[in-house]
Design brief:
Layout lengths: L1 H10 L13 E5 L6 H17 L11 E4 L10 H14 L2 E3 L3 H9 L3 H17 L5 H6 L2 H11 L2 H8 L4 E4 L2 E4 L14 H6 L14 E4 L8 E2 L3 E3 L4 H4 L1 E8 L2 E10 L2 E8 L2
Parallel strand pairs: 1-2, 2-3, 5-6, 6-8
Antiparallel strand pairs: 1-9, 4-5, 7-8, 9-10, 10-11
Helix pairs in contact: 4-5, 5-7
């Protein structure tokens, strides 16, 4: 895995490497999708990596953590992931970006059709993680299930994800869940595109107004291109949760990976 990532990094063309502002360090984490076990191990690895490096910024020895969205759905413990993410934000500086799965949950509060789609695309696992009875979830009529699910999820969790951002810009980097629409100025990007877009974003080889760090589209390893990097490595599908770490013009990856021996952590430095 480390060799693969190094090869990908080596193939990423760039006239000038993108940079963060001086004294800043960032750890951006891809789509967690209810995998609390992987999230916990990745947090431990980030804390360890951060503490072993020089002070990132005077007065603040800890790097900024950015969660790129889709904390919920598909995996077994969305409720636990939200609780852990909220706890992490009380312990260190964390920024949150809203993904399409968070958007689906928020919209489904008022729209039954949206709730039906939410269930279809991993929301069933989310409401089960809040302690709902599996037999009831399996057998209930949609309206009854909707009412019970909205009661089971605490208002504080709705408020938490409703406060997630559309996009974050730091130095030459753009952090977003899905991507941006080519040819549209960053200040005019629609929230729907930021949370849902695939094409024409993924195949675009030109400039975006910054180097984009995104999730949303699953690849087995980080998808490094000259103008973007995708770090949704399929936590719920492949058992691999990825963070990209950034400082100055440096980049490195940290992964928590599920294996027959449990969850292992691997770090791949650029170069």
């Amino acid at each position: 895995m480390l060799a693969k990532i190094r090869n990908l990094l080596g193939r990423a063309p760039s006239a000038r490497p993108p940079e963060l502002p001086a004294g800043q360090r960032v750890y951006a984490i891809g789509d967690i999708h209810g995998r609390l076990d992987l999230f916990e191990r990745l947090i431990e690895a980030i804390e360890r990596d951060d503490s072993q490096r020089a002070v990132a910024q005077p007065g603040n020895s800890r790097g900024l953590v950015i969660l790129l969205g889709d904390l919920i759905d598909r995996g077994p413990d969305s409720a636990g992931v939200l609780a852990r993410a909220s706890e992490l934000a009380r312990q260190r500086e964390v920024e949150f970006i809203q993904g399409n799965h968070e958007e689906m949950l928020l919209v489904s509060r008022e729209k039954l059709d949206a709730f039906r789609s939410f269930l279809k695309f991993g929301g069933r696992e989310t409401i089960l993680s809040y302690g709902m009875d599996p037999d009831f979830v399996r057998e209930a009529e949609l309206e009854d299930l909707h009412g019970a699910a909205m009661e089971a999820i605490p208002q504080q969790d709705f408020d938490f994800i409703d406060g997630f951002q559309k996009m974050i810009r730091l130095g030459d980097y753009i952090f977003v869940h899905a991507g941006v629409r080519p040819g549209t100025p960053l200040e005019n990007q629609l929230g729907h595109d930021c949370r849902w877009i695939r094409e024409p974003f993924l195949s675009h080889s030109g400039e975006f107004g910054g180097f984009v760090v995104h999730g949303h589209t699953i690849t087995e390893e980080p998808d490094v291109r000259g103008n973007r990097v995708g770090i949704d490595t399929g936590a719920y599908m492949h058992g691999r949760l990825t963070a990209i770490a950034l400082e100055g013009s440096e980049r490195w990856f940290i992964q928590a990976c599920e294996s027959d021996d449990g969850i292992t952590v691997q770090v791949a430095d650029e170069g």
